[in-house]
Amino acid sequence: DDPQYCWFEMTVTNIDNGQADTYGFGRTHSFEKHQQFPMYVTGPYKIEMKGNLVKVDVTAAKRKP
Fold first, then answer.
1. If we measure between CA atoms, which residue out of 3, 52, 61 comes closest to residue 30?
2. Which of 45, 47, 53 is nearest to 26 (CA)?
3. How many CB atoms lie within 10 A of CB 12?
4. pTM of this prediction?
5. Which of 20, 21, 24, 65 has the lowest tally of Cβ within 10 angstroms?
């Protein structure tokens, strides 16, 4: 597939405070295939994902101090 058509976007919203951050691959985001993003506030999160011509693996883990 042509890389210009491969993209992915994930919006992570903290339900408690409404703060939302958007991460992604391609288009307006980095083309780095392995990305890690820490969440600094505990609480429930809503994750919305959309994309085109990509396979995405998401791993969520509890941070240890």
1. 3
2. 53
3. 17
4. 0.75
5. 65
